[in-house]
Amino acid sequence: MDKQNFPPSIYDRVKTAIKSLNLDQYQLAEKLGITQAAISKALNGKSDRSLQRLVMLLSKEYGIDFEPLQTNSDQSEELQQIRTELKEMKESLEKGLEELKEMISKLEK
Fold it and tell me: 0.85 exceeded by the pTM?
């Protein structure tokens, strides 16, 4: 993906927000629990997913408001696909946990 999927101003807004925190990319990455490479990709327009995640984390951890963000229909579809995949992963993990509990219960008998 490239920078065309987000308004140009979002990159400037994110960079300004990061500068206001007085943190370099390495420090910010450590505080947000992501890699410096993910931040770099986000800020250089190499990964829309990294930018979305960075915006979400900055909003959540530092209360920085980036609204309103314009998203195109492709991004909405991609977000819906991600939600669906996460839901399927959650269901699979829950099923696996139940199976593990049953196995432990049988072993304890």
Answer: no
